[in-house]
Amino acid sequence: MKPGTGAFRGCAWTTRAWCNSDTAGTSTASGVTSRTSSLAAENASDKDLTKQLLEKSSVPVPRGKVVYSLEEALEAAGDLGYPLVCKPLDGNHGRGITLHLMDTEAVTRAFELAKQHGSAVILEQQFEGRDHRVLVVGGRLVAVAERVPAHVVGDGIHTIDQLIDQVNQDPRRGEGHEKTLTRIKKDDALLHLLEQNGLNLQSVPEQGKTVYLRDTANISTGGTAIDRTDEIHPENRLICERAARAVGLDIAGMDLVCPDVTQSILETGGGIIEVNAGPGFRMHLHPSQGKARNVAKHVLDMLFPPGRPNQLPIVAITGTNGKSTTTRMVGHIMRLAGHCVGLTTSNGIYIGGHRIDRGDTTGPRSARTVLMDPEVDFAVLETARGGLLREGLAFENCTVGALLNIAEDHLGIGDVNTIEDLARVKGTVIEAVRKDGYRVLNADDPLTAQMQNTGEGTLIWFSRQGLANPLVAKHVQEGGTALVYGQLLEVGPGTASQAQQQQGWVLLYQDGERTPLIAVQDIPATMGGLAEFNIENSLAAAAIGIACQVSPETVAAALRSFHPSFEENPGRMNFFYEHPFTVLMDYAHNPAGLTHIGRLVEGLREKHRRVIGVLSGTGDRRDEDLVELGRIAGSIFNELIVKDDERRGREVGEGPQLVAKGAREAGLGKKHIQSIQPESAAVTAALEMARTGDLVVILASNVEDVWAQIRSFKPDRALLQID
Fold first, then answer.
1. Is residue 619 within 8 Å of residue 701, measured between CB atoms?
2. Which SS3 state, helix, strand or coil, does residue 343 take?
3. Half-sphere exposure of 542 (CA within 13 A, CB side)
4. Is the peptide bond before 656 cis (omega within 30 degrees of 0)?
5. Is 202 helix (H, G, I), strand (E, B) or coil?
6. Cβ-contact 476, 509 below 8 angstroms
7. Cα-based distances in Å from 68 to 30, 88, 586
8. Strands 378-382, 341-345: pairing kind
9. 619 neighbors 647 (Cβ within 8 angstroms)
C-alpha cells in the first residue's frame, strides 16, 4: 500500500479498553472492559430487573417474587409452589443462596440466611437439572461449562472430613482465586447441608457414593467444571446470546439450568436463572474436565477486531535542528485531519491543542504522558538526544520515524564524542519503526542519508535538492515516495503561469507521478523562502503527513495556515514588529542552527540598519564548539551580547570568552562584544541598544520569559534616532 491511500495499518482508531482477566488463571479473573456499561452492570446486579428484561425478550426464566419480610416470603412460597430457591436480590458468588426448599421451615431458614447479604430477597421457582455457566462475549457465545458443586466420593473407609482433606490436597486448589480451583471450606453452610442429609464430618460414605457439600456449584466455593462448549444445543446458544443483549453486557456470564444442555430448553424445560456482569473466566480457562477455552482471545478480538488497526499511531521526530517546528507542523496537519493530537515539544506537552505541562518535554516520561491519555488518538513526539540516552524510548515501535539532520551538538556528553556517535543515538528512532510503518529521512544530510537501510518500514525521502540528489532521483524512478523542493517547469497551453513556474514548490513524487502541493512563498513559516531551514522542515512535515495517510490537499492547507508566531510555535522564528525596531526570537543553540539564522538575517539585512545578537556561551559545549559559535555570530551580528547564565560546570565568563574569541576571529571588533548575565539583563541591554530600523536577534533559553520581556519593553523614544 502506498502512503496517502487506504487505511493506516500502523494505527489504532479503536477505543482504549482492557480486560482484567488473568489468562494464567492464578488471580481473580473477571471480564470487565472499558466498554462494559455501568447501566448494564446495574441491571445484572438487580436479579428481579434482570428477570423482567429477560421475560420481555422471551427468554425462559423462573417465576419469582422480591420479598422484604418473612411474612412476604411465606406468602410468596405458597403462591409459587415448591421446590424453591431463596437468594439475596443483589448477591454474588453464591453467597446467601439456598436451594431445594420444600416447606415453610426451610423457607424460614433460607430467608434469614439471605437477609444477611441484603435487605431484599428473591424467592423463585427452582429449575431442575444441571448447572451451567455460559460465557457470551460481544454478543456471541464463546464457552459453556457445566458446574458441579463441591463434593466427595466415598470409598467405604474414610470419613467425609478425611475425604475433604484429600480433595484439598489437589495442587490445583488454593485459597480464594489464587489457583484454578478453590479449597473446600468446612464451614457452617457445609455442616448444615450434611445435617439435612443425615450426615456429619465423621460419617463414612459407602464406596462410590457422591456426597455433595454445597447447594450451589460456584467454583469459588469448591466446585468443579466440565467443558460443554461443543455440546450446547443451537437454540440454547441463541437464547443465551439474546439474554446478554437484553441486559446490555459486552461480557456476560449466564447461569443456565437444564436437564440436558444438548437439548433445547424449550423442549426439556429449564432456563436462565441469572445474568452476571464481570463473570469469572477460571472455569473456562482451566476446566476440571474437557477442553480449555481461550476466552481472553475473544475479549481481545471484540475490543480490537482482527484486521483493524489496534495501536495508537505514533510519529517520533528527531534530529539536531528543526525538531520542534516540524513536530508542531505535523501536529497542525493531524489536527486539520480530524485527530485529537498529543504533542511533546521542547516547551511543553499539548493535548488537543491545550498545554498541560511546561518545560522541556522531549523525553520518554513526557511521551508516556501523551500515550496514556485516553483523549489522544494520534501522538506526535519530539524525541531529543538527552531522553534517548537517559531512558531510551517510551514505546516499543512507532508508526512513523523521522530523522531531520545530524549536526555537531552536545558532543562530549554522555559518551557521545563524535558526530557518528550522535547519529547512532538518533538512529534509534528509525530502528523503532514498525514493519508496516514509514521512515522519513533527509536525503541531503550525509549521515541521515546513510540510514536508508536502517530499520524497517517504507522509506520516504525529503530533499531541498530535489531530483538533483541521486538518492532521490533513483528512489522516484523506482516508484518511491519523496517530498522535494523544486519548480513546476511546465510548458504549453493551460499550464502554470511563468511566475508560478519560477516559484519554488513543495512537490510530491509518488508511484512515478508528481503532485505540486504548495508554493513555498505560500508557507508563512518560510518567510517567502528566506527561511531555508523552514523549507526543509515543511518538506519533512509534508512527508510525515503523507505517510500518515493525510490527503495532499489537507497537508497543503495545514502548511498554509501554520504561522511562526509565538502562539503557534514558541521560540522558533518569532518576530515582534511593535517596536521601532524589529525583534526576532529563536531557540537556535548550536553552530548549525545559528548558520540557518545567519542565512535568514542575510536576506533581511537590506531592510535593517544594524543587527544586534544575543546568544549563550553554554558551558557544556566543547571549547571548539563555542569558538565556532562565536565565529558564526561574528559574521552575522554588528553587535554581540553573550549570556553567561548557563555555565554548567565552567567558571564565570569562561564560555563567553570562547565565544568572543571566535567572534574576533571572524572580524568583529572587541568593543562590539559584551558578556552579560543573566539572560534577562542581556535581553534588556540588547533592547536598550536598539535604534529605529535595527534588527535584534535573541537566541533565548527561557523563551516564555524572554517573549514577555520583549512585549513589555518600553523604548526610550528620545534614544531611538540614529546615532
1. no
2. strand
3. 36
4. no
5. coil
6. yes
7. 30, 10, 75
8. parallel
9. yes
Residue closest to 108 by CA, chosen among 77, 143, 154: 77
**Which residue from 330, 224, 253, 216 is spatially nearest to 568, judged by alpha carbons?**
330
The secondary structure of 658-698, three-state, reads: HHHHHHHHCCCCHHHEEEECCHHHHHHHHHHHCCCCCEEEE
Q: Which of 470, 553, 476 is nearest to 511 (CA)?
A: 476
Report the C-alpha gap between 280 and 46 in whole angstroms.
18
pLDDT in tens, 606-635: 888 899 999 987 756 788 888 888 898 888
Closest CA to 459 of 494, 435, 489: 435
Give me the residues paired with residue 130 across strands: 258
Kind of pairing, strands 224-227 and 140-148?
Answer: antiparallel
Residue 106 has pLDDT above 50, yes or no: yes
Which run of H or of E encompasses 301?
helix 295-303
Beta bridge partners of 698: 585, 614
pLDDT surpassing 50 at residue 660: yes
Residue with cell 412460597: 77
pLDDT at 719: 62
Here the contacts of 439-442 (C-beta below 8 Å, separation 24 or greater) are: 439/400, 439/401, 439/402, 439/403, 440/400, 440/401, 440/402, 440/403, 440/540, 440/543, 440/544, 440/547, 441/402, 441/403, 442/319, 442/403, 442/404, 442/405, 442/536, 442/540
Prior bond to 364 cis, omega within 30?
no
The conformational region for residue 176 under phi > 0 = left, psi -120 to 50 = alpha, else beta, is: left
Main-chain phi, psi angles of 200, to 5 degrees: -150, 180
Beta-carbon-side half-sphere exposure of residue 362 (alpha carbons within 13 Å):
22
State mean pLDDT over 697-717: 89
* Sheet of 582-586, strands arranged across: 574-576, 582-586, 695-699, 611-616, 639-643, 673-676
Q: How far apart (Å, rounded) are the C-alpha atoms in residues 326 and 545?
A: 11
Q: How far lies 609's CA from each of 380, 580, 602, 630, 717, in Å? A: 40, 12, 12, 21, 17
Band (95; pLDDT cuts 50, 70, 90): confident
- What's the grid cell of residue 476? 522516484
User: Residue 363 carries which DSSP code?
Assistant: S
Q: How far is Cα 255 from Cα 236, in angstroms, rounded to an integer?
A: 12
The torsion region of residue 472 among left (phi > 0), alpha (psi -120 to 50) and beta comes to alpha
| Euclidean distance between CA atoms 479 and 514, whole angstroms | 11
**Residue 250 and residue 235: Cα distance in Å, rounded?**
20
Model confidence over 5-62: pLDDT tens digits? 333 323 332 333 333 333 333 334 567 888 899 999 998 888 889 999 999 999 999 9
Give this prediction's pTM: 0.66
Please, which residues have CB within 8 angstroms of residue 499's CB and are 6 or more apart in sequence?
none
